[in-house]
Give the backbone structure.
Amino acid sequence: MASGGPTSAKEDQRCRKKTKNLEGCDRLLETYLQMVPVDRQHFTAAQKRSLNNYTVELLKSLKDVLMKTGSTWQDSKRLSRLVRKGSYRRELKTFPCTPRPPFLLLLEMGKVFEEDILGWLRQIYVGMRLPHDVENPLSARTMCYCFRSHSTEAVFYGACVGSFVGAEKLRKYFIAGLKKGWFTDSIVSALESVRDDVVESRVPFDSEVECSAFQFGNKNKVFDNMYKIGPCYRCKMLFQGVNFTPDRNRSRGDEGFEWGNCAEYYAFSQLCNASDAT
């Protein structure tokens, strides 16, 4: 029987993805442990609780990522070492829901003890790189923030999910995120209306909403560089009335996903949730 056919090629591709996700998981945790403050005596009780909760969710998220490519948490030395810690192991067993993607959780952790969120995320992105400057599949290249001008509300940050996820898994993240409040009903409903890049439903905002997006790492091979980018075609159509800076369309977004994989979805959902709570 001839070897090296389609099945063999698919198996090779699956093995490479498995290896890359394992390497990405270990590198992410190594970077995380280097950057999260060891001395937390100055943390408030709420900060300590938030950081612990995000860490548990991050470990659960990484376990899920590895399982999707046929690995287990035991295959990652750093992950297995943390999971075996008594408190984390107990909490992981009772974790109640689908976890957020890893990079979104790192974003949330940064908000616990950092003021310069974009600087924190840039350090994470650079620190997570694999050998030979290969991008970590668990990292997010695109970030954004949004806010209301002339308002006392906070600035809201978002990140894309990461290249490790396939289209069907990405859809599940959005649906799970809708149930848990990571994404709002209006945004998920608008995404569901997208057909062949035609947007049938839109999310209206008032003219006070400002948004800027950034990309890391792929300009002139300067991997710690961060530069502004305009909204993709889909975001420009979805989010009506927003003042994007810069305002030029960068593309039609991530062509690999029918719904796109945009940082704006998470940021605008946080803004909507905060507005609904006031």
The longest strand covers residues 209-216. The mean pLDDT is 80. The beta strands are 142-148, 156-159, 194-195, 198-199, 203-204, 209-216, 226-229, 239-240, 243-244.
